């Protein structure tokens, strides 16, 4: 049984109730620690880890020695921060509070080793380095170069559109031509993409839980690390797509030909993790 609301114990006082999603976001951002006390009813208390299945985001339970999982965690934290409005002053206080013990120790050791006089020397070196960096930066700025593409979250659906990092949750995109589009880490939860043309689209790390992709054209699409939990992929065309590390738990794959599709380390529809060399089927 999942609990929709939770209480949090801080400084000897019970706070709440808070929605479960809010607690999960705070855990993801480090504002609630896994050893903190929580309760679903204000009476039965336990550590966050005691309720890990309900409260600890999946990305925090993964093996963080894997660079891929670290990238997923960074993406999830960006999403957690971008989906709310922050007061700049309070946000800066939160960031200062989140400085880890290791960095605090390094700062203390630096003060002990250099003191005020040493700090002045470091300051002079820093000024000189800044001047040199400025000259190099000016030369780089003046040299011809290709500008990186800039996402346009307000752009209408069209081939090659760049919606990277945008929130398009619940969007009605039935039959739209989005071929070659850039949608890295885009929020497409519950989006209606039936019959859409996503050929060659980059959907790496996109959040697509509950989306409807029935009959969509995903040929050559990059779905690396994409959250596809509970999506409908019935009759979708996926030849040449890459689904390595994707999360397909609960996805519907009726009449989908996965021949040749990389599935290494993907989470399969039944929750098991596919072998790294899996292609076309989850081994």
Structure overview:
The chain folds into 3 domains: 5-97, Dna Ligase, domain 1 (2-Layer Sandwich); 111-145; 149-283, E3 ubiquitin-protein ligase SopA (Pectate Lyase C-like, 3 Solenoid), CATH 2.160.20. It has 6 helices and 4 strands; from the N terminus they run ββαββααααα. It has helices at residues 20-28, 52-55, 58-61, 67-82, 88-97, 101-142, and strands at 5-10, 13-19, 37-39, 46-47. Strands 2-1-3-4 form a 4-stranded antiparallel sheet. Strand 3 and strand 4 (46-47) form a beta hairpin. The radius of gyration is 23 Å and the shape is globular. The two termini are 31 Å apart. Mean pLDDT is 80; it is low at 82-103. It comes from Thiohalospira halophila DSM 15071. InterPro entries: 5peptide_repeat (IPR001646), Pentapeptide-BTB/POZ_domain (IPR051082). Keywords: Membrane, Transmembrane, Transmembrane helix. The chain crosses the membrane at residues 121-142.
Molecular shape = globular
Helical/strand content category = alpha+beta
Write the H/E string, N to C: EEHEEHHHHH
In DSSP terms (H or I, runs of 4 or more residues), the helix count works out at 6
* Highest CATH level, the class of the largest domain: Mainly Beta
CATH architectural designation of the largest domain: 3 Solenoid
Mean pLDDT figure: 80
* Tally of discrete structural domains: 3
If you compute it from the alpha carbons, what radius of gyration comes out, rounded to the nearest whole angstrom?
Answer: 23 Å
Give the percentage of residues in beta strands. Answer: 5-15%
Q: How much helix is in the residues?
A: 25-40%
Enumerate the strands of the largest sheet in spatial order, edge to edge or round the barrel: 2-1-3-4
Protein name: Pentapeptide repeat-containing protein
Keywords: Membrane, Transmembrane, Transmembrane helix
Pfam families: Pentapeptide
Organism: Thiohalospira halophila DSM 15071
């Amino acid at each position: 049984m999942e609990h929709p609301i939770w209480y949090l114990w801080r400084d000897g006082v019970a706070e709440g109730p808070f929605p479960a999603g809010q607690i999960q976001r705070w855990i993801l951002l480090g504002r609630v620690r896994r050893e903190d006390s929580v309760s679903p009813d204000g009476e039965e208390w336990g550590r966050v880890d005691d309720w890990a299945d309900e409260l600890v985001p999946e990305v925090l339970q993964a093996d963080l020695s894997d660079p891929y999982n670290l990238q997923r965690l960074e993406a999830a934290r960006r999403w957690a921060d971008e989906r709310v409005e922050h007061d700049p002053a309070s946000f800066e206080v939160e960031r200062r509070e989140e400085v880890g013990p290791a960095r605090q120790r390094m700062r203390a050791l630096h003060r002990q080793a250099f003191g005020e006089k040493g700090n002045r020397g470091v300051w002079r070196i820093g000024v000189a380095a800044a001047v040199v960096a400025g000259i190099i930066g000016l030369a780089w700025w003046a040299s011809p170069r290709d500008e990186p593409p800039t996402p346009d979250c307000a752009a209408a659906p069209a081939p090659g559109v760049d919606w990277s990092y945008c929130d398009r949750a619940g969007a009605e995109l039935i039959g739209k031509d989005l071929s070659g589009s850039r949608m890295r880490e885009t929020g497409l939860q519950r989006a209606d993409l039936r019959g859409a043309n996503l050929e060659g689209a980059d959907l790496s790390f996109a959040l697509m839980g509950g989306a409807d992709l029935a009959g969509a054209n995903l040929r050559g699409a990059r779905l690396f690390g994409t959250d596809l939990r509970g999506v409908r992929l019935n009759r979708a065309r996926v030849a040449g797509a890459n689904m390595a590390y994707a999360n397909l738990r609960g996805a519907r794959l009726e009449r989908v030909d996965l021949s040749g599709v990389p599935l290494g380390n993907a989470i399969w529809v039944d929750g098991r993790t596919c072998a790294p060399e899996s292609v076309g089927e989850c081994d």
